[in-house]
Structure formats: structure tokens, C-alpha cells
Amino acid sequence: MTIASRDFRELRLDGVSRGFGALNALKDVTLTIQRGEFITLLGPSGCGKSTALNCVAGLLPLTGGSIWLDDRRLDQLRPEDRGFGMVFQNYALFPHMNVRKNVGFGLAMRNESKADIDRKVEDALNVVRLSAQGGKLPGQLSGGQQQRVAIARAIVIEPPLVLMDEPLSNLDAKLRLEMRAEIRRIHQYLGSATIYVTHDQDEALSLADRIVVLRDGTIRQVGTPAELYSRPAHADVAEFMGYRNIIRTEANPGSNGWVNVGIGGAEIAGTPLEGVQRGRAIAAIRPEDLSPVGNGPIVARVETAEYRGRDFYGTARTEDGTELYFRSEQNAAVGEVLHLGADPARVLVYADTAASRPAELAPNGIAA
Ligand code: ATP
């Protein structure tokens, strides 16, 4: 018997841990996912994303903690008894079975009647817009179509939860964009919950209701895409969310609640986070928020510049050797000297602690 039912309130991971020998791949992860939510697990390679997903799926037993669907404990159940739909990066289709048979496989294993299987398979193929391809073999389909078959196979069992592990990684950039929209549409249509693993922040920002950022097997931050984009809670999360300027510096109290930080020999105002007021700090600025302005305090010479259609992105170096990523609406030529500035609201200043420091920043502050 499976517990598959979309009629649930929440899935809860309660202090979930998973070790591999001496390695703690997942450490005491607690997370609640509401029905209807689209959650992405985001983080660098090896941070424990797939391990977390496989623990929820039942493919990996836990070494600590528990998993609950409302008040039913799941972590002792076999994967097939949890009734979750899974979609993997490599599609995992049966090559000798046509699309209909692939999609209906799970239902056939449950001994459902042929009439029910036919009806549900047709419904699922409709949802992924593949009704016309039902008689084809996977090898006769494009990568995007094969991934749609895998999605149809995951949703045909009407799962409370759909688990996706980097499902778009094997597709080219254009198809990835199209499939993102499809996945979002399918999720909204189904009304179940989705946990989606990715290391691509754009994918996470565009798909998720909430993003869970993992590092070294622990949750660093949970938030909406807007929160993660504009207000990462820690410097390492900022770095992962595209704040390419991550600068070791010193903070001092400034006016209007800002803190002042030194960057490339200049002093600029920033937003204090983690309660930082003075002392060792890390400033984080997106390239698009650091631009040439009339009286920009940071003087830097352009080393690289590339045209991106509407503006220029590049790197510039200050006299003290700090490399900065900037954006310019005007032509920026290599060798040119720029006067860069940033809105203090977009200069995030964090305490410089071992826990918050991005991995690339060695303890001495020199980028590895
Ligand atoms: P990626 O994006 O590269 O897939 P990930 O964030 O999904 O990374 P996991 O696959 O969850 O990371 O792995 C987390 C850690 O656990 C890594 O250090 C990995 O080497 C280790 N690990 C995963 N599976 C096993 C296993 N079966 N045996 C031993 N170590 C493992």
C-alpha cells in the first residue's frame, strides 16, 4: 500500500542526518515544506543536495532524525511505499518501451486496471504536451521530450511530492529555459509539492517559492528568491547568489545607520548585516551594482571588458591591487580609469567569521 495522496498539509524533515563513513554529508537538517510549495535545494557541488533528496525519496536510509508527512512517519518506509514521483538528470527511461509503456510502468506495477492505466497515462501525456508521441521509443525523441516523458512518469502516480534532481542539466540553454516554464506550469497544475535540486542560481530564482541554500551538509539560509537575491544572510550565501565582489575589509560605524568600509583605498557606505558595526568584515557587491559615477570614490583601471548588448561588464583593478567586477552603461575600454561607486543599500557588509567566510577566501583574506 502506498500513502500517495495529495491531501496533506506539510512534509517535515526533523533533524535529518546522513553520513558516509566519517563524512557527514547531511547534518541535522530541519525543514518544513507546505503543500503546493516549490522548494529548490541550491548549493555548490558536494554540499548534500542529492543526499537530502535521496533521503526524502527513501533511496538512502537516514543516520539520524526523521521525516514526516503530516503525522505519518516516512523514514522507515520503502521508496515505493512513500509514493513520491522522481525525475533524474539522466531521464532513466526504459529504452525498449514506448512512451506510453514508460509512463504507465509504475501503475502497472501496482496492478491497476488497463482502463485506468490508459486513462491516467493519456492525462499525464496531455499535461506534458506529448500526447502525439505516445507510440515512440525514447531514442526517437529529443532530450527535452525525453525529460517530459520522465516528468509524466513521475506525475502519473498522482504523488503528494515530486522530487527532481537537476532534471535540466543535460539540455541545451534554450531548451532549459523552455523546460523551466513547463515545470513551473506543471507544478501549478498539479498542486502537489516539489523539491528541486540545482546548483544553478538562475534556475532556483526563477522556479522556487522558497530556496534552501545548503553548504557542507547544513542549511545556510531559507528564503524567497527576492530575499536571497537582495539580502543574503551570510557572506558565503551572497557569494553563491552572484555577489562576485567579495572583499575582506574593515568596518566602522557611519551615518544614517550605514557602516563605512574600505575598498580599494576608498571608503564607502554599506548596509550592516549580522550586527556588524566595526572590525573585520566582508563587503559583498554585485557587479551590476558597482558602476562608474561622476564622483565615484573607487578609482580602478579596466583590465577586461565585454559588451553584453545593453551595457558592459568587466574587471578593474585598484591601485592597492583589489580586483573588482563592474557594470558600465558607457563603453569601458581596457586601460581606462573608472571612478566607481555603489548605492549603500546594495553594499552588504558581513562580519568576517570562519562560519560565514566563502570557501575561496583563505583565512588571510587572499582569494585562493
Ligand atoms: P552535486 O551537485 O555534485 O551532485 P550534491 O550537493 O548533490 O553535489 P551529494 O551528492 O549530496 O552532493 O554529496 C554530498 C557529499 O557526500 C559529497 O562529499 C559526496 O562525495 C558524498 N557522498 C555522496 N554519496 C556518497 C556515497 N554513496 N558514498 C560516499 N560518499 C558519498
TrEMBL record:
The record's listing under SMART domains reads: AAA
Please report the record's description of how this protein sits within the membrane.
Peripheral membrane protein
Establish whether keyword Nucleotide-binding is in the entry.
yes
> What is its subcellular localisation?
Cell inner membrane
Q: Which GO terms describe its molecular function?
A: ABC-type transporter activity; ATP binding; ATP hydrolysis activity
The record ties this protein, via Gene3D superfamilies, to: P-loop containing nucleotide triphosphate hydrolases
The record's annotation in PROSITE patterns points to: ABC_TRANSPORTER_1 (PS00211), ABC_TRANSPORTER_2 (PS50893)
Please classify the protein's predominant subcellular localization into one broad category: membrane
Q: Which GO terms describe its cellular component?
A: ATP-binding cassette (ABC) transporter complex
Return the InterPro entries for the record: AAA+_ATPase (IPR003593), ABC_SmlMolc_Importer (IPR050093), ABC_transporter-like_ATP-bd (IPR003439), ABC_transporter-like_CS (IPR017871), Mo/tungstate-bd_C_term_dom (IPR008995), P-loop_NTPase (IPR027417), Transp-assoc_OB_typ2 (IPR013611)
Designated name of the protein: Carbohydrate ABC transporter ATP-binding protein, CUT1 family
- Kindly state which keywords UniProt assigns to this record, in alphabetical order: ATP-binding, Nucleotide-binding, Transport
Pfam families noted in UniProt: ABC_tran, TOBE_2
ABC transporter domain: which residues? 11-241
What the record says about family reads: Belongs to the ABC transporter superfamily.
